[in-house]
């Protein structure tokens, strides 16, 4: 690749040549982290949008998950803190790993600063917002009981895990 080639051509050539093992690992970790972010955002929306009827259903059910959901709801500040701290850790991880990927796939060259900025800041922000915030919260607002039952155990575990539990 010569320096006179447009940077978009360089990116295409790197992608066609294949990802390095590290880059592929970073991509897989980012997918996992975005899943965790989506799960926590959905949890936030679901737990705090339960209707009084939903709360009654939880009280009537004698299964372990319903009791665990009630236990989590009995400490709303701790529950919210657990979710928000987890989301922040995860999103920072996504940003850091995304920077490593961009360094590998799209190395800095003179004149590429604006493109890198747009990819790093705008692109990654949109990715996190859509996959880790907006879509999960829309889903959770329509399926609150399903979501709270599904995430009760992971949230309980996270609420007992330092530094999230501090």
Brief description of this entry?
Helices cover 80% and strands 0% of the residues. The chain is an all-alpha fold and 166 residues long.
Structure description:
The protein has one domain (8-159). 80% of the residues lie in helices and 0% in strands. The chain is built from seven helices and no strands. The model has no long low-confidence stretch (mean pLDDT 88).
List the helices and strands and how they pair.
Layout: H1 7-17, H2 21-47, H3 52-60, H4 64-73, H5 76-105, H6 113-142, H7 144-159
Helix pairs in contact: 2-5, 2-6, 2-7, 4-7, 5-6, 6-7
Shape: elongated
Compute the separation of the termini in Å. 51 Å
Helix-strand topology string = HHHHHHH
Mean pLDDT across all amino acids? 88
Instruction: Indicate the radius of gyration in whole angstroms.
Output: 20 Å
Approximately how much beta-strand content do the residues carry? Answer: under 5%
Number of E-type strands: 0
Helix content: over 70%
Structural class: mainly alpha
Uncertain parts: none
* SS element count, helices: 7
Name a few traits of the molecule.
166 residues, mainly alpha
């Amino acid at each position: 690749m010569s320096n006179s080639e447009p940077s978009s051509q360089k990116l295409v050539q790197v992608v066609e040549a294949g990802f390095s093992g590290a880059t592929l690992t970073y991509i897989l970790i980012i997918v996992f982290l975005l899943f965790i972010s989506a799960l926590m955002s959905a949890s936030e929306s679901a737990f705090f949008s339960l209707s009084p009827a939903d709360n009654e259903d939880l009280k009537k059910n004698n299964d372990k998950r319903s009791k665990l959901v009630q236990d989590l709801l009995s400490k709303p500040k701790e529950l919210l803190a657990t979710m928000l701290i987890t989301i922040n850790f995860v999103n920072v991880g996504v940003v850091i790993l995304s920077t490593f990927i961009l360094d590998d796939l799209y190395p800095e060259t003179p004149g590429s600063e604006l493109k890198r900025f747009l990819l790093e800041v705008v692109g990654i922000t949109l990715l996190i917002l859509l996959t880790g915030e907006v879509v999960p919260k829309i889903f959770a607002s329509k399926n609150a009981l399903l979501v709270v039952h599904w995430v009760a155990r992971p949230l309980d575990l996270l609420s007992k895990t330092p530094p999230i539990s501090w």
